[in-house]
Amino acid sequence: MSQATKTAMERTVVLSIAAVYMMQQLTGLKGLQALLGVLVFAAIGLLLPKLKGMTLWLSSSFLLIGAILMFVRGADATEWFQAAGINVTIVTLFLFAPLFGIPVRLPEYVAGLKRLIDASARSRTALLTGTQLLTQVLGVFLNVGAIPVVYGMVFVRPQPVLSRLLAGALNRGFAGAIFWSPYFAAMTIITTMLGLSWSSILPYALGLAVLSLLVSMLANRRELKELAGSASMEAEEQGGETVSFAGQDGRETDEASAAAFPKGLVLYLALTMAAILLLERMVPLPMVMLICFSAVVLPLLWCVFRRSAGVYADGLKHHLSVTFPALQKEITLFLAAGFFSGAIGATGFGAELPAWLGHIPLPVSLTFSAFTVLLIAGTSLIGLHPIVPVTILAGGIVPESVDISSVYFAVLLLGSWGLSNPISPATAVNNLLAGLTGRTPFQMASDNYRFASWMALLMLLYLAMVGWLVPG
Q1: Confidence band (pLDDT; 50, 70, 90) for 40?
Q2: 430 to each of 168, 170, 437, 445, how far by Cα in Å?
Q3: Which residues are within 8 A (CB) of 91 and not within 5 positions of it... i.e. 6 or more apart?
């Protein structure tokens, strides 16, 4: 079989998963679950031989352990297919959600964002906060694609310490997007498995995003003081010229003072979010379906309105021919992880965990929250993707059994996933930043340990407030 034929088969099977899932959601036909399960196993079988390293090891382990658990339980075919289909929503999301980012790359918007970064570069604190916030906002629509876009705006002539801080700001900004973006795998998995609407948790998820900005400023205090103390010495070493980032020279210019977030981009981002919220309340379809339909229509209408239909056509072509095929590694890992979590959940461990935690002389809601954060963050440190413990917990734990509400549980899982992302050497963001900065993924992850520690502690306090507002 030729390579072209293999590639065509892989693409057909993966696209068929998204098509069958959408058909199932629209028609409610239960018979499609078996077909969906067959397609998932076929996709894994086709894509697994192409994986390498940690991804191959993890995917293979998930499949093997999951299969053993299913065989031991004597699971029937229906249970196998149900376990296999747990994460098919992610494949559908990978196919459609990136289309929202096409208008964000319009040249006038990119130029406006560069002016905004230049203006904020007059203050290191403003530069770091602005970089983190910009990455968070763009990450909602561009996903990992926001990293190289913002990187190209802020990295000009790097100082070693500030370079690490900016890389950390990019990393934490992406984590902030995980907290609340409806287009990310984290939100899709958690809301689907817990039966929640995005709008029901959005206010509390946005609170996490704001908290991450404040915690990042707290975590950077020592390095910012170090930079302030060494600025004059570095200026002398550079022959009297202060080293700068993105035009950072301390001068007030008319262009910098007039810089602002592009109004057209603000309007586009606001309209897309408002449309999703409105559709969620008016149309009786799952969030994933609303995102799929909106991702096709809204960016197209906006580009036509801006007389940039060619940009949409080029973006769509690039996505289908380059971006989506490049996600094969993530698709295989997520499908295998979904099968594994389905097999674990079917063992009924969720009924045992509250009893185990009950032996600790503390409120079970607190012990469970701390256990969840430590589990997700701890496994991320050694390279396990957060999707694995999150899907296991979301599918196996009944929130009321640990004295929490479904909303509280969702915010806990989102927060744990988000704070774990910057400290995992296996995430796409850390590997991408490592390639851009010439450092290792482990070095990129270690720069965020302090941030993750502070975020975990303060998030538990924040969750206590959420628990008070939304009692279990």
Answers
A1: very high
A2: 10, 10, 10, 7
A3: 14, 17, 18, 21, 331, 334, 335
Report yes or no: 127 and 121 within 8 Å, Cβ to Cβ. Answer: yes
The predicted model scores a pTM of 0.84
Q: Is the alpha carbon torsion for 424, 287, 182, 402 positive or negative?
A: negative
Residue 445 phi, psi dihedral angles, 5° rounding: -70, -40
Interatomic CA distance for residues 455 and 179, integer angstroms? 13
Instruction: Rank 128-132, 217-221, 446-450 by mean pLDDT and report only the highest.
Output: 446-450
What percent of the chain is helix, strand and coil (3-state, nearest 5)? 80, 0, 20
Q: What are the phi and psi torsion angles at 425 (to 5°)? A: -75, -5
| Angle, vertex CA 468, rays to CA 464 and CA 472, nearest 5 | 100
Beta-carbon count within 10 A of 3 CB? 7
Rounded CA separation 226/242 (Å): 15
Tokens of 404: 């929490």
Q: DSSP secondary-structure letter at 470?
A: S
Distance (Å, rounded) from C-alpha 143 to C-alpha 251?
Answer: 34
